[in-house]
Amino acid sequence: MTFQEGKIPATLVVLTKNSAETLEKALESAKDFDDIVICDGGSTDGTLGIAERFGARVITQDQRFLDEGGRIFDYAGVRNQTLDAARHTWILWLDSDEECTESLCAAIREVIAKRGEEGSGTFWVDRKYTIHGTVIDCAATYPNRQMRFFSKRSTTGFVKKVHERIALKEGVGPEFLDGVMRIPFEPDIDAIRRKWDYQIAVAAAQITPLSLWHFLEAVIDCTKISTLWFFRLARNAVFCSGTKMPFRFEMERHYFHLRLLRAFWKVTTFRTP
Known about the structure:
Layout: E1 8-16, H1 20-29, E2 33-40, H2 47-53, E3 57-60, H3 75-85, E4 90-93, E5 99-100, H4 102-115, E6 122-131, E7 134-135, E8 144-151, E9 155-159, E10 165-168, E11 175-184, H5 189-207, E12 210-211, H6 212-239, H7 247-266, E13 268-269
Parallel strand pairs: 1-2, 1-4, 2-3, 6-11, 12-13
Antiparallel strand pairs: 4-8, 5-11, 6-7, 6-8, 9-10
């Protein structure tokens, strides 16, 4: 595979829909990638113009993976479109409101230099929130890692319609990558709830109908996660001296679990097979 001199021989993949407000910063932070694939859901703002300025190739989100309103219903399906379109073996998955740091780009260069453009591997990437440009050092959800950098040789593609993730081939173990990805955090609670409520609706639609036993399992899982977050919140209050995530936003994640369980309860059936 040939690539432009000085560029990172990897493909950056991004999903967009009316993402002009954040996309420019996202692409500016990752401008050193040789190949950029934008999978767009019908933007009517300046998204496509921004993509063109950064030399991105734009593909259209497949209608099979969208709901009647044109919103993504199957995130794994759409993300797999970007893998099919990628020109390189190495992939970095970035959301349209996220940003790469210089240290992350440098770490990616180093991995590819050592393993080769057709090499193998999958990597956890650390992520940190920012609010109005200020990095959040302490949050109950830290460490916040996702498998964002990987070789297509080591994976079978994305799975799960919501909260999607990359599936690894048998025998492949993930590694940790130096560097950090920044996640600008929306300080508008109403906007956060609208985004999360859509994710809840998609999750509930996927498991309809839900047995009472599986509902109880969901209650246990959410309780475990919330308990862990409360423990971390107390630990951060005592031991973390950096910038903390505002308390109201920390509590919003617990409220998310309550809304999720309420949605699951509505689709729970008491019928026995």
